[in-house]
């Protein structure tokens, strides 16, 4: 027999007395790797019986880790503190990046490439200049087009240009010294023209016309598109402007100058002072400055406004925790822990920011909410940890209690923290830098917070817990019991460390639910008293949830929710408002909105760049270019025609049209000289020298003004149409077009929906994988996926009703919602699915019975104690109700464990984000609105929808014993057999005939012997193997050796259950034929009688019996496991020479006794002291065979082992012929008169064989099993 991994644990006693701390540490490390090796081994073997072990792997690690921390808390307190202290060095590298034109722009956006293409044209891009815009309005909102206002604006412009002295710390300048390529574009020219136009009284003449965006004076044009807005047109001529309410003064600072940035800052500082004073002194005009630095400063005001509330959040959370963690007697309260529960995430914040700032990452105002998130998440985890401490056994020593605390909270906190971190890490693949930045900060902070929770905070809980455990009153309460009893885990350690131990005693126990029974044990009621009132409330709540009316209401509400959410998601607004980037009371709101309104509706000036220069000497190329321009300037809805286009080639064409040979002037070597001859502004072109030294035009830009756009969705439409037109001419011209507002926010907003869908899909897949890895249950994965989709899209839909748009800001919130949406559901799913099944009953007797101990004894012999597991189902009434009872009981335990902590977490999060409501900024409002929705939706999903749904039942239907009862009961009783059973048999028959007579089975797998209609024991087998989930059935292969019917009371349920599994998992469930799967046998031994009794009407029972026997005739006869282990029901015969002999047997076989080899495989038996074969005179069919025939058969077939059933064996299994043949019997207490055990054979990946033994169900051994590996 094989021993488990831990049987090789060394003896440490000699070392322990000399070096206890080092001993504890190495013991923890050693058993960590032992657990890890066993876990890898479990994964490698895909052993269904170890599925529970896989789920408990982290719990075991956390239990040992908790022991270690409790013994040595000081290092775990000091190391996080020192790490936090040293990480503060990185805080000195703090710097800010709030450049919205960079961090909000998609990395892969086409606008970035278009902007880059225009950089060669400095005038168009201004990439090396700093722009300052002064918005001039009348204080009464009136018309500025009058002499008085124009004179004042002109006076202000001249004062700024000529009188302000700008200093860089070394030299002094005036504006004309720093304006670079823009010096020729004087605001004064525009204002002078307006003064002349005022005298025209809204009329035009042949020499002057105030049209927009190009005004004409004589033969020259003045571009007004950047300068005047909110226009009013003359009634006499609708193309002539006779009034405007907005005038914009433009000032540009050349950043290429030495100390250019310092010059720009000094100039802007003086302008701010001047404009405030001018606005104050002016009777009718107000001046407002708009610049990039001012945008950034106003965004930083959000951070400055929010930071004071972070302290308020910490205080409110401490107060909330102090109140909610108050207990009586007062010494049991956890007030000090409440303070450190807030301190731990604060330390994590400092550490993460120190690391990230030290690594050079910038800070942005969008990160203002990160501290609030991390603190609330840390407090949520702390609630779970403290709840687990309260539920631990107060009679145990500190090490055990901390181990229990981490056992019950560590895995849950790990799952939710990991899902949060991974979910935010999904955001790292977003194409928005601001989203990436937020996700980096948040994921690192949450990860460090998790580390601090399981080190610093748990160490502090251990530190304070020691004071409570050592309290005199606490000792007096439990001292008498402790003298008589030791904790389960202490007992385990003492047995492991026994010097002469040759067996391993391992315990799989939930301390909060079970304790040792007997006189020397501590009553569970003494361990932890539960308020009767809260118990009654929980019972009533669970009962209400299971009412049919409640289920109907919940399902109807959920369907309504889905319909409403689906509709609202189609109405979500993806537009962007520039004012959302600032505080609500910021003066920049009015400025940015006025500029946005002016730009979109009146003067959306798009610059186009052409590079390299095409051959304009070719008439065809010129015509194509003219056609391109015509299409661009006449885009429907937005185009202004030729009046909105500033293009030097048109002026040039008009000038050279006077000459006959027009094409000659377009030649590359003459174009530049002619261009300069006609005194066209060189700001439109770039030049380069050819190889022969001739300077030529290498490229040029032009601008087209668009209008009539109401929002950035219209800008997106214009941008798409424009790009479509340009792409049509891509083979002739390399044209790029760009407007700053297309980069941000147009393209940014346009990518938000795609980002959300991609991120949500990726996160759903990732979250599902993580949850499945830790919980290993498909029903949990489905529940999590439903929760994520419902909550995320619900948040998106309801945020729409709350005036939140889908933009880069809300995208971050929605990304956060994906991570948070899984938390509450994951807690409930994990604790529900990891609960042991207990009897749900209100009577005292049943309650006490449910607290039997759980343990497994592993050893090399069969002389072991019987130890109990959960009560088995022993009557049909219980069988009919087991699913419902199991569900209610598990939810009762789940709600006791995490129900209140989940509510506490939600409430603490609400308390934590409450101060954010006071920060009047859209950026912050989006987050607290999102969090409120997440908490409400998350708690409803976790505490109402999941318990009310049948999701667990539906998926446990595929493998769980308890739910298989439910499944088979429905199939066998609630539906008419012709409509349900016969179709199932027909499908199964087709499936069996599609398989070979000799099945090929890979390892790992389990082999089950005779069942004989003992359905309740089949249920016990599935329970022990952990086959209660689809995941288990998929991962584990089963080989059943036949004899499914007869003898027992529930042959119909047994065969229906197995057929259901076979149809759902055809590759994993392998069913062989036994001798009782023949009509002449099951007619005699009970199956026919059972069917006729169950289906008495219209001869249905007989019809069904015939259908089953037709099915049995199609069953395979043997299986070969990994080409080395032959599985058959009966035995071997002289006809078997090679495996192909079995493969050649054709099916269906109505009477196997007519085929010699088939008869031997189903009927033969081994016999001691026999050589060769003799007829089986006892059974009347098949042979008796001796050891020599087994050895010869194994050599002939090149196999190592024969596994068969067919015979009842008291110990469940028995070897023959020096372990070359083993008989397995899986029907315990056979015929209700034997006291035989049930055996399950396990074949591991390396072909090692082990057994699990189940005790027979008797009044004395009710619910007991033992495992021998």
From TrEMBL:
Its EC number is 3.1.3.16. Residues 306-463 form the SSD domain. Its main location: membrane. InterPro entries: Calcineurin-like_PHP, Metallo-depent_PP-like, Patched_domain-protein, PTHD_SSD, Ser/Thr-sp_prot-phosphatase, SSD. Keywords: Glycoprotein, Hydrolase, Membrane, Transmembrane, Transmembrane helix. GO terms for biological process: endocytosis; molting cycle, collagen and cuticulin-based cuticle. It is a multi-pass membrane protein. It catalyses: O-phospho-L-threonyl-[protein] + H2O = L-threonyl-[protein] + phosphate. PANTHER family: PATCHED-RELATED, SSD DOMAIN-CONTAINING PROTEIN. Belongs to the patched family. Belongs to the PPP phosphatase family. This is Serine/threonine-protein phosphatase. It comes from Brugia pahangi (Filarial nematode worm).
